[in-house]
What does this fold into?
Amino acid sequence: MSDRPTSCKHSEGGITLVSWNVRGINSPLKRRKVYAHLRTLKADISFLQETHIKTTAAKILCPSWASHVFQSNFSTKARGVAILINKTIAFIHKQTIS
It folds into this structure.
């Protein structure tokens, strides 16, 4: 896998934010490992960089524990980011700016 994720939790029971350069999660095995580790960290909101997911495969970023997934994909197998919001977070998507 890649480098260790960075996480931050508010000291008084706030939300846990995790930022991680995953260096590609096209492989189902690696994706499962990333999702499992995010669950271990009890991530409320996860920011994934360098997902390397092509636009045609965008639907593979749908872990069962996430209520919302926002992603930016590219036509080449490079770059790409994703934000995963845990179901435990009261989140309402109001607007998308493109």
